[in-house]
Fold Cytochrome bc1 complex cytochrome b subunit.
Amino acid sequence: MTTTTPSRGARAAAGTADYLDQRTGIGTAVKTFARKIFPDHWSFLLGEIALFSFVTLLISGVFLTMFFVPSMAETHYDGPWAAMNGVEMSEAFASTLRLSFEVRGGLLMRQIHHWAALIFMAAIVTHMMRVFFTGAFRKPREVNWVVGFVLMILGLAAGFSGYSLPDDVLSGNGLRITDGVVRAIPIIGSYMSYFIFGGEFPGQDLIPRLFTVHVLLVPGLILALVGLHLFFVVLHKHTQYPGSGRSDENVAGFPLFPVYVAKAGGYFFTVFGVIALMGGTMAINPVWNYGPFDPSPVSAGAQPDWYMLFLEGALRLMPGQAEIVVAGFTIPLNVIIPAMVVPGILFTLLALYPFIEAFATGDKREHHVLDRPRNRPFRTAFGVSLLTAFFILILAGSNDLIATHFHLSINDITWTFRVLLFAAPAFTFWITKRICLGLQRKDRELVLHGHETGRVVRFASGEYIEVHRPLDEHERWLRVQHSPTRPIEIEPAEDSRGVRRKGYRLDAIRQRVSRVFYEDRVEPVTPAELAAAHAHTAHPHGTDHDGLPQASPAAALTSTDGDEALVSGAETDVAARNR
């Protein structure tokens, strides 16, 4: 037997780890966390894209901070970009030009930073869509949904404060719109504008203040909430997609170490590499083409980044004549409604939806297995309609580009989007709900009869039938495992003595909301229905109408390959939900 003597480096590492463990107890935490099981599905990578994009933002942002001058003091540019020589501009704009053309790698880092910001917001929105449509926000994850929603709002704040820093014409026009929105607030609007800009727009203090918000306040809050978000993921365990052998009591996947540590490390470099490639090959925000901020030039094609286009679109769609005068004060509804009311309604519905759905269902159970979107028609349809409204507002924010590129009337485009903003969400809600109900009916047919094969056989009696291929136990389980959702039934308004029941009004509201959610539904197949279907199709010659050997109805929801956990799980779940 041979023994290996540890090297000096190994002994030093072991001693350091032991020293830290004895004083912090970190070894227990690391061991527990490393053994944490996480499911494996490509859609879970959307959150990782957002996280790695944020890390890329921090790395590139540190570099940019070293060269950017957050000052609105006036100077005259003298540098390699000849078109700007001698032009009066702010120190912020001049330092942006120096960073782009004189600092080695400066332009690359600027573009990496900007592309990472766009991908960060896109990943957050897509990740929230995945969470919404699969019901991952249900108990116990409602608070984590709110944390993610706040992270999205902070991402908007970080993006807006970041692309406003160069003090060019494009960002200056955006700040001017912001000033108009703030001034539209009744009574306190002008005072808030003076507070934000340090005087009349544009003032001398806004860029330094935005710089502080962008590099200190918002990133600090995002870092704290990202930590809280990940803590909740570990605390509640990760959700998983439905499938045989998966339940609310287990997690089917791989441990964090070494599987996901290796995957996450490689995935970070993949995300960073893609962003770096985009930054090196795709120009973005060329401020030298716009020039320093001047309130007089405003041209077609002046749009913010995509995640703020919905606000721009709402402002463009609102008629300019929508103003009222109350007690001598002008209330500019043409600004208040599109800039505050419409986004407020859309974002409030999005933030509170988990609590609204829980109120409608009365469901207090914990959920760790995700929904198939087709099995929640109202939720899926509502999400699609909300996305449709945002998409129309985003397109409306580019109505001038659509008009110039396709040679159309901008007035016709604006009126079209005004109509679509109300009609399209309603239509997409209806059509999506119909599609979901149709897919559920298709699932019932598949469970009861199996897949069509296109093969027709003739029995001795002269009867012709089409052969169906029965579902395997895994596919059947996927289509019957969900619990049916029905409208809530409440007690009568008055008891047997004619006394009005306390709390009836709230129960009646909940019942009406529940009917909106679940009155249109398709029940999953029950064991009794499956037994009846097999009895109906039974053939006297020992075969069923599928042309296959006749099996007992009880076996239809059980495993045929010895998967006893699947058998008991399917029968128990299907029977329990139909008691």
